[in-house]
Amino acid sequence: MALHWYDFLCPFCYVGQHRTAILVRHGLRVVELPFQAHPDIPPGGIPAGPRTGPMHAMLEREAKEAGLPLHWPARLPNTRRALAAAEWGRRHQPRAFPQFHKKLFDAHFVLGEDLEDLVVIDRHASASGIDLAALHAALADDSADTAVMEAEMTGRKYGVHGTPAWLVGERLIAGLRPAAEFERLAESES
Question: For residues 179 and 65, is the Cβ–Cβ distance under 8 A?
Answer without folding.
Answer: yes
